[in-house]
Design brief:
Distance between the termini: 60 Å
Mean pLDDT: 90
Structural class: alpha+beta
Helix content: 10-25%
Strand content: 15-25%
Largest sheet: 11 strands, mixed
Number of strands: 30
Shape: globular
Radius of gyration: 24 Å
Oligomer: single chain
């Protein structure tokens, strides 16, 4: 059956030979690390932190893999960073399985974040580099990569498991053999990114993934540089082969900034696959968290990626039993760690999800004087095909084996008693950034000040301001200008209170070619005088308010459902194009630390398995989740009885 034209991406079956070429690997010794951000760095940040009403929203991808990532190439990916950047900026690219693809709406910015630990090694295995295939296991992988897709996938599973458990063939750790390959691939990567960076039109960031795994428990970070080659120079990435401890990565960050005058930040992701390690109340070595740790983590990791192909990490029904929308993106991703080598238990959830971490941050701030988990929230892809597509009806798959086909929804990944299905992968998310212009500097600075939000792939526009004297009257004028002038945007800190409660301006505008809006919610977290944390969800604006009401327990009448699964269609006959309100906290206490963030939900729409079923004319098996409500999550606004350090 031919491929149909779709709303956000135009695809046609196209016969094309797969790209195959060889280059190298990357990891090398770091410079001597410094301990913390310098005073000059902090001052530089403060100078650039002040936003203005001139900001506009930019949508981008901060987490994309190409054939330079060894797991991707072993699974069948052949597209390179140049292909990824061409596609993201709006050009036509042929996928790994021969599909001709072009985004109808290009991205504004992108980070090609290949795994730095073995960057390019998989491609060298594919081409039969004799230095590597001298090892019998590596040689067997090379043969499997040239076999069937399932054989190639099996090789990838072995590599991922070996890396997760620290049991790769020794030759892959040998820096005498791999040093030149590392330098070659990384230099080519940086040169490619520089060539595609077009200030004002399309921003390409230098970046990579720091792939720390502890027996399969995910502690990955995306590393993003503000700088181009004029400052970046010949910097080589610090990788998990140097150290798996994120604190050592932060030391390397500090040294990079002090040595080059540049700027860098880290973005943790997939706390849901860390088996309780990502937001733990102890450090990597098992010691208690200290004020120094909290200060460094808050500075070096101002953002967290909460939604991507491997699930959603905002909250979990076990942690938030009163949140009717907490189950989004959980199926298959809350049963074990990254490589399914260890089953998950309920006691791990509190250290895995962002909302609980935000609450823990308030508790730790009261104890340590600074909040280690004071982060903004973004979405991303973690796509391993080189093609960043985030909408349900243009889903090109998380991996080569999950590129479009009639079988992909029911493909399985099994480890022991645990099984994940293809349909459980999300179509990925997006990072939305409020910045003055589409440049590295402006977008990076917005990330630093946390004026960002996450979406599940939709491009709805969301604003959040907090202050002390906002009212409905502000919505009749230039409320954005007033929001900046008399309050703080998402990611900011409210100044200490006098007596009245804070008020918030919240606005959401639907994706221009997407679904209408269901509701806006404010999620509040706080810590009481005894040190106990709490949360509450407020429905603050919704479509059809004349017929939809909030019950005594705070629940809002459902918006309805127009989805037709047989045709994978829906109707915008329900919901709202825009929602906007001013909300004041009815339960505010001046002496209580708190945070507030907005969650915006669209009306129900089909998921990508439903589009597949309609496109290829088959019936989805029972149990497959075929529709959902796309959403956005803003970065929080924090309140502290006294100004946080």
């Amino acid at each position: 059956m031919g491929w149909i034209t779709m709303k956000y991406i135009r695809l046609h079956i196209h016969t094309a030979s797969l790209l195959a070429c060889g280059i190298a690997l990357a990891s090398c010794s770091p410079p001597v690390p410094a301990e913390r951000p310098s005073a000059q760095t902090t001052a530089r940040l403060e100078e650039k932190a002040a936003p203005s009403s001139e900001t506009r929203v930019f949508f981008g991808e901060t987490h994309l893999h190409t054939a330079n990532s060894s797991d991707a190439v072993l699974m069948g990916t052949r597209l390179m960073p140049e292909d990824a950047l061409r596609f993201g900026s709006g050009e036509t690219v042929v996928s790994n399985t021969g599909i001709k693809a072009k985004l109808a709406r290009p991205l504004d910015f992108m980070v090609v974040a290949d795994h730095a630990e073995q960057i390019g090694t998989g491609r060298e295995i594919l081409t039969g580099n004799p230095l590597l295939t001298a090892d019998p296991t590596v040689k067997r992988w090379a043969e499997m990569m040239k076999g069937t897709p399932e054989q190639s996938r099996s090789a990838a599973r072995e590599l991922i498991s070996g890396f997760s458990q620290g049991k790769l063939p020794p030759i892959l750790y040998d820096r005498v053999i791999t040093a030149k390959l590392v330098e070659s691939v990384w230099a080519q990567h940086v040169a490619t990114v520089e060539r595609y960076n077009q200030p004002g039109k399309f921003t390409a960031f230098i970046g990579y993934e720091f792939t720390s795994l502890v027996k399969g428990n995910n502690l990955h970070r995306i590393v993003v540089f503000r700088d181009g080659v004029e400052k970046f120079g010949k910097t080589m990435p610090f990788t998990a082969l140097d150290s798996k401890d994120p604190e050592d990565l932060w030391k390397w960050f500090a040294n990079y900034e002090q040595t080059t005058g540049g700027q860098v930040l880290g973005i943790p992701h997939n706390g849901n696959l860390s088996n309780g390690m990502m937001f733990a109340l102890n450090d990597f070595k098992g010691g208690p968290l200290t004020a120094d740790y909290a200060r460094r983590r808050q500075y070096w990791e101002p953002l967290t990626e909460i939604v991507q192909a491997k699930g959603e990490s905002e909250s979990h029904p076990f942690l938030s039993p009163n949140d009717e929308f907490a189950n989004f993106g959980k199926a298959g991703w809350d049963v074990g760690n990254l490589d399914l080598s260890a089953t998950k238990t309920n006691d791990m959830f509190a250290s895995e999800y962002a909302r609980e971490a935000l609450k823990r941050g308030l508790m730790l701030e009261a104890k340590l004087g600074i909040n280690p988990f004071k982060f903004g929230m973004i979405g991303a892809g973690d796509i391993h095909t080189g093609l960043s597509t985030s909408e349900e009806n243009n889903h090109l798959g998380e991996t080569f084996i999950l590129e479009p086909s009639a079988e992909r929804a029911m493909r399985t990944e099994k480890r022991g008693s645990i099984t994940r299905f293809g349909w459980q992968s999300l179509a990925a998310g997006l990072a939305a950034v409020w910045a003055k212009e589409n440049t590295r500097e402006a977008i990076f600075d917005a990330m630093r000040r946390r004026e960002v939000y996450a979406t599940t792939g939709t491009r709805l526009q969301v604003r959040l301001f907090g202050g002390w004297d906002f009212s409905e009257r502000d919505l009749k004028g230039n409320w954005v200008k007033q929001g900046y002038a008399r309050g703080v945007p998402m990611g900011g800190d409210l100044r200490p209170a006098t007596s009245k409660a804070p008020s918030f301006i919240i606005s959401a505008l639907k994706d221009a070619t997407g679904a209408n809006l269901d509701r806006i919610q404010i999620i509040k977290g706080w810590v009481d005088a005894s040190g106990q944390t709490h949360e509450r969800i407020f429905n603050v604006a919704w479509s059809s308010p004349e017929t939809r009401k909030v019950s005594k327990d705070g629940r809002l009448t459902a918006v309805g459902d127009t989805v037709d699964l047989k045709t994978a269609t829906y109707s915008n006959s329900i919901g709202a194009v825009e929602l906007r309100t001013v909300w004041r906290d009815p339960e505010f206490k001046p002496g209580v630390r708190a945070f507030y963030y907005a969650r915006v939900l669209e009306i129900p729409t089909p998921r990508w398995p439903a589009y597949d079923a309609a496109r290829y004319q088959f019936a989805l098996p029972d149990g497959v989740k075929a529709e959902s409500q796309e959403r956005a999550y803003t970065s929080p606004i924090w309140y502290s009885p006294k100004v946080a350090p």
